[in-house]
Amino acid sequence: xxxxxxxxxxxxxxxxxxxxxxxxxxxxxxxxxxxxxxxxxxxxxxxxxxxxxxxxxxxxxxxxxxxxxxxxxxxxxxxxxxxxxxxxxxxxxxxxxxxxxxxxxxxxxxxxxxxxxxxxxxxxxxx
Length: 127
Fold this sequence. Notes:
By secondary structure, the chain is mostly beta strands. The protein has strands spanning 4-7, 10-12, 18-24, 33-39, 46-51, 58-60, 68-73, 78-83, 92-99, 116-117, 121-125. Strands 2, 4, 5, 6, 9, 10 and 11 form a 7-stranded mixed sheet that branches. The protein is globular, with a radius of gyration of 13 Å. It starts with a strand and ends with a strand.
């Protein structure tokens, strides 16, 4: 069982930035693909970004391309989501998810491919 904890959410004005971090309880986190998903009030949870466990494959939702950057810090055993030029439409609860039963270059965009999930962190973009 892998325990994931997200941090870094908060309230920010449009155009601002936030950095979300996903920390894992397992020391083998390096061998997990990790994805970020978000859920706005009254909406379905949607894909945001994903990174393979090699770090060589990255995927982004069209709505965040050029504004969000996913990366992993191997010494710290974390995966981060840098969010710049935030818009009100980015508001929601952000979840990180991890999966180790994937190819080393896989970065799944389908939430059903992830077994392990964090509790989520709230991001609110408002003036």
